[in-house]
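quick q for whoever's on today - can somebody do inverse folding on this one?? i tried earlier but teh output was garbage lol. C-alpha cells:
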C-alpha cells in the first residue's frame, strides 16, 4: 500500500512539473550578448481580443542568466495584433516583483511594433498564431 501511495505521489509531482514547464525559444539577439526568447507554453490567443499573448524573457548566457518566467527571470508579457502589427505591454516581471496581470490591459492603447526585437517577435509568433490555444 505504501508503495502504491509513493508511486501515485511521484506521478502527481512529475505531472505537475510538466504542466508548469517552460519551453523557451530564442527569437532575437540583442546588444552586448543578450538574447530574447519566448515561452511557447505561455503563448495563446486571447478570446476577448484575438490578440496573441506571449511571454518573453531576456537572457545573457555569458553571465549565466538564462530565460525564465516570473519569480526566476526578467521579461515581459505582450499582446500582439499580428494583422495591424501593434502591441500592448501587458506586464513586466522580475524576481523581486510579484507577477500580476492587470485586469484592464485589454483597454490599453496599442503601440506600433518597432525595433529589431519587436520585428523578430512578430516574425517568430505570428505565422503560428492560428495553431495557438484560445483562452
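ok took a stab at it. sequence:
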Amino acid at each position: 500500500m505504501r508503495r502504491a501511495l509513493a508511486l501515485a505521489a511521484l506521478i502527481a509531482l512529475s505531472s505537475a512539473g510538466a504542466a508548469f514547464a517552460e519551453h523557451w525559444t530564442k527569437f532575437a539577439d540583442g546588444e552586448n550578448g543578450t538574447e530574447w526568447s519566448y515561452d511557447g507554453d505561455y503563448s495563446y490567443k486571447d478570446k476577448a481580443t484575438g490578440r496573441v499573448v506571449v511571454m518573453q524573457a531576456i537572457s545573457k548566457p555569458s553571465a549565466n542568466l538564462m530565460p525564465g518566467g516570473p519569480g526566476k527571470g526578467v521579461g515581459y508579457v505582450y499582446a500582439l495584433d499580428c494583422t495591424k502589427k501593434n502591441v500592448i505591454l501587458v506586464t513586466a516581471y522580475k524576481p523581486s516583483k510579484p507577477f500580476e496581470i492587470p485586469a484592464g490591459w485589454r483597454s490599453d492603447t496599442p503601440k506600433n511594433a518597432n525595433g529589431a526585437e519587436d520585428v523578430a517577435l512578430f516574425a517568430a509568433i505570428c505565422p503560428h498564431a492560428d495553431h495557438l490555444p484560445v483562452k
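fwiw The mean pLDDT is 87. also The first helix runs from residue 2 to 19. so keep that in mind when u check it
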